[in-house]
Backbone:
């Protein structure tokens, strides 16, 4: 278990293993590489404090839980909005949970780090990828209140990965053509097992199942 939990930038006590948002939310289909919504920049959130936005955040947390992800962007559930959610625990035992609308990434310093990175929209494989080690994330919450977080390491990587999604960029767009070809080949082999796992977890958590196409549109 995480020794410390930070929710929307503030430390909290007695945070549940499964966030209340994930309990409330319904599971949506995760869009996959090749679908148009993943390959162009999303629209900024302009209407805050709405029931639709709160419901979307709940559904994204539920979908991220079932897909066993640490971050999920709105276009990964087919919604063209600049919004992502996250729930991850770093190596030092700190859990970070939250959502961000209209994220902007500022790189802090020149240090980079190479770690294997994967993506729920490229189910199965991963590849080593360099990213800046430290960033600042600015944006707003679903009520429109401004947010600003300094992050490093795993958290910084998550923030960059999800912000890239909202700008129409997947991690496989940042690697060589040869590596991309290998990743897509591996995805074709591993995808059925990943989708079976998602179906199993959907049942385990008492959620309504979702259907995926037999083949991705790659």
Residues:
């Amino acid at each position: 278990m995480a020794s410390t939990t930070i929710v929307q930038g503030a430390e909290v006590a007695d945070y549940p293993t499964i966030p209340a948002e994930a309990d409330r939310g319904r599971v949506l289909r995760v869009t996959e590489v090749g679908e148009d919504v993943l390959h162009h920049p999303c629209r900024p959130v302009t209407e805050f404090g709405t029931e639709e936005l709160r419901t979307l955040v709940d559904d994204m947390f539920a979908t991220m839980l079932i897909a066993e992800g640490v971050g999920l962007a709105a276009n990964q559930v087919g919604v063209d909005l600049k919004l992502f959610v996250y729930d991850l625990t770093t190596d030092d035992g700190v859990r970070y949970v939250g959502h961000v609308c209209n994220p902007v990434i500022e790189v802090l310093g020149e240090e980079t780090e190479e770690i294997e990175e994967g993506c729920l929209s490229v189910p199965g494989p991963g590849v080593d990828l360099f990213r800046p080690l430290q960033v600042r994330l600015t944006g707003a919450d679903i009520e429109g209140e401004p947010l600003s977080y300094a992050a490093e390491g795993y958290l910084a990587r998550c923030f960059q990965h999800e912000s890239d999604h909202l700008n129409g960029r997947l991690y496989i767009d940042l690697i060589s053509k040869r590596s991309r070809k290998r990743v897509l080949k591996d995805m074709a082999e591993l995808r059925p097992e990943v989708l079976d796992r998602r179906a199993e977890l959907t049942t385990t958590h008492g959620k309504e199942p979702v259907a995926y196409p037999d083949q991705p549109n790659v």
Remarks:
- The domain at 4-204 is CATH 3.90.45.10 (Peptide Deformylase).
